[in-house]
Design brief:
The protein is an alpha+beta fold and 87 residues long. The protein has 1 helix and 5 strands, in the order H-E-E-E-E-E. The protein has one helix at residues 20-36, and strands at 40-46, 49-61, 66-71, 74-79, 83-86. It has a 5-stranded antiparallel sheet, with helices on one face. It is elongated, with a radius of gyration of 18 Å. 7% of the residues are buried.
């Protein structure tokens, strides 16, 4: 009988840990963008990598957990659970 080697253990990449203060700050900046039409840069962490999106928040869907943004001529939706920071 031939021994089959075990597959290597995959490294688990944990996402960033946010505090309650971080969540409050993110909420305030998203609210300002929606109310006053201020452009913000949202950084998200999805699929083990960071991405940044710059635009104006148009709609917040609290029940489904999505955020609609107007980026240039496009409208995109972002999962609010993936948001790491808002500048």
């Amino acid at each position: 009988m031939t021994a089959i080697p075990k597959p290597p253990k995959s490294k688990v990449v944990a996402g960033p840990k946010l505090t309650e203060t971080d969540f409050l700050e993110i909420g305030e900046r998203i609210g300002e963008s929606k109310e006053f039409g201020v452009e913000v840069e949202i950084t998200i962490y999805a699929h083990k990598r960071y991405e940044s999106v710059r635009g104006v928040v148009k709609e917040i869907e609290g029940q489904r957990g999505f955020l609609s943004m107007h980026v240039g001529y496009d409208n995109i939706k972002i999962n609010m659970n993936n948001i790491v920071s808002v500048k």
